[in-house]
Amino acid sequence: MFSYWEQESFTRYDHIVIGAGIVGLSMAIELKDKFPATRVLVLERGLLPTGASTRNAGFACMGSATELLDDLQHTTETEAVELFEWRKKGLELLRKRLGDSNIGYRENGSYELISTDELEALDKLEYLNQLLLPITGKPAFRLANDKVGEFGFSKDYTKALIENNCEGELHSGMMMRALTDMAISKGIEIKTGADVIKFDDLDTRVEVLLRDPFRNETSVLHCDKLFICTNAFTKQLLPDVDVVPGRGQVVITHPVPGLKFKGIYHFDKGYYYFREIDGRVLLGGGRNLDFKTENTTDFALNEMIQADLVQKLYDIILPSTPFTIDRRWTGIMAFGANKFPIVKAFSPRVFGAFRMGGMGVALGSEAARRLVEIVAEGD
């Protein structure tokens, strides 16, 4: 049970945000900017953000050519362009809010390795460029085959190289640190180790029930409005939403002497992604090898996919360069019937922004901005 002092000072808020990842912290900042007189609290069940915000690859990307072409097999041109624009606006907002130097943002090139099975995509680059031109203002894609040898990739696999002129990279840890620092500077409270069990949407307020592991009891907080920004873990609070977790496997090498490339890279319709960071190679992906197992919120390593990632380093990325693996980890993303995030009001007091489709870095800031606009329109 809370003491009198705790009950009076730490249990009532105007806005409570569940989740301290990219979306949750962006949401809290947007709320404080829009409604500066309000008390805003962010609850995070982990010591650090739980899902993928600090466990991703640090790509500031909007979609590779083959990924966009694959999307167009399942959606309209209008929807594909809208989603691309959403990602672009989200990245622009993130960079403007935090500053490039504070998130380690760099533009060292973005490329896609094209295999024999994907060569037909080259005939559609001009189509994609024209489709996206109103958003990008310049051709998004061009061939860069001359760089395959320069970068040292396997020519047996890499039959072409497509350069994306609209993407960059960042340091995920610096980004989350900058978001956290900004939130605190605005007077936003952040509580870690705060495991939300459930919430009750009442007539005039929302009650949020948390597990207190130290005192082995539940505690109740109250707010006028609740914001659920828990991405892959949202079904624990909203069981009926269309959210499927997707685990991403990652490896990173020790520093590789004489590494020939910088920038970010995709191959196999975006299911694999790698980059240079501090002279190392970070490689993630392979979820398509075992969708059933990887549709989970368990952070365990998948040994089969982990072995495949290392083999991809040997066979495709560093075919003639010795390397050793430094560490391995996983992050949990959220997917659904389509690639658009869910950003909506569930009641006059409960709101949500989640299901970032593996694009939280690009989509998160814009998703938060749009949800706060929904709140403002309803007030």
Structural description of this entry:
With 379 residues, the protein is α/β, with parallel strands linked by helices. Helix content is 32%, strand content 28%. It is built from eleven helices and 18 strands. A hairpin with a 4-residue loop joins strand 9 and strand 10. Helix 2 packs parallel to helix 11. The chain is globular. The two termini are 34 Å apart. The model has no long low-confidence stretch (mean pLDDT 97). InterPro entries: FAD-dep_OxRdtase (IPR006076), FAD/NAD-bd_sf (IPR036188). One of its GO terms (cellular component) is cytoplasm.
CATH 2nd-level architecture of the domain at 4-53 and 174-242 and 338-378: 3-Layer(bba) Sandwich
How many beta-strand runs?
18
Q: First CA to last CA: what distance?
A: 34 Å
User: Main β-sheet, in a few words?
Assistant: 8 strands, mixed
Strand content: 25-35%
Spatial shape: globular
Helix and strand composition category = alpha/beta
Would you give the CATH topology of the domain at 4-53 and 174-242 and 338-378? FAD/NAD(P)-binding domain
Mean pLDDT equals 97
Low-confidence stretches: none
CATH secondary-structure class of the domain at 4-53 and 174-242 and 338-378: Alpha Beta
Q: Helical percent range?
A: 25-40%
- Can you say what the CATH homologous superfamily of the domain at 4-53 and 174-242 and 338-378 is? FAD/NAD(P)-binding domain
Instruction: Provide the succession of SSEs.
Output: HEHEEHHHEHEHEEHEEEEEEEEHHEEEH
Radius of gyration from CA coordinates: 21 Å
Number of helices: 11
GO cellular component, one term: cytoplasm
Protein name: FAD-dependent oxidoreductase
Domain FAD dependent oxidoreductase: 14-373
Organism: Flavipsychrobacter stenotrophus
